[in-house]
Amino acid sequence: MEVKKFFDFINSLDDLNLIIDDVYVFIDNESDDQSINKVDNVGEIEKVIFKVKDFYIVFSVNYDDNAMAVEVVKDFKKGALASVFIKDFMGLKGYALGSFYDIVNTNGFSDGLKITFYDPLITGSRHFFSSLTFFSSYSGLMYEFRDYGIDRYF
């Protein structure tokens, strides 16, 4: 699914309170621990899946055109969601998806996606938790977590 179609899906929902129930992270079988920098909150993975309400949001790379890919899936086969544990991603459980920002290159392709996360239990301007930026590359899905800087104001 193109990122624009994903945005259309999100906008069509009646309830935009999208709290993450579960997180699944997949790394390429050829990758090793070197592709994930646990200190800088950056790395390279194959895909990330957020379970939200009664559906799953799958973030990955479309290798045909090196563009960001996002799918909405209703269910997976039993056992299909065996994933690796990456603390940064697992820490997102219970937080709400906030704003989504499409990162578009000069050719009109979605090279990435920025997502902000909020604490649904806190009201007011202090409920920002962090932001996650995905960037697609031919080698996989690059990511970076940030909880500071200009991302606090998006």
Sequence-ordered SSE layout with sheet pairings:
Elements: H1 3-12, E1 20-26, E2 36-37, E3 42-45, E4 47-52, E5 55-62, E6 67-73, H2 87-90, E7 96-104, E8 110-118, E9 128-137, E10 140-146
Antiparallel strand pairs: 1-4, 2-3, 3-10, 4-5, 5-6, 7-8, 8-9, 9-10
Strand order of the largest sheet: 2-3-10-9-8-7
Query: What is the helix tally?
Result: 2
Structural class label: mainly beta
Average predicted local confidence, pLDDT: 82
Poorly predicted runs are 34-39
Largest sheet: 6 strands, antiparallel
Number of strands: 10
CA radius of gyration: 15 Å
Oligomer: single chain
Listing every helix as H and every strand as E from the N terminus to the C terminus, the arrangement reads: HEEEEEEHEEEE
The total domain count is 1
Coarse shape: globular
Beta-strand percentage range: 35-45%
**Ends apart, CA distance between termini:** 25 Å
Helicity, as a percent range: under 10%
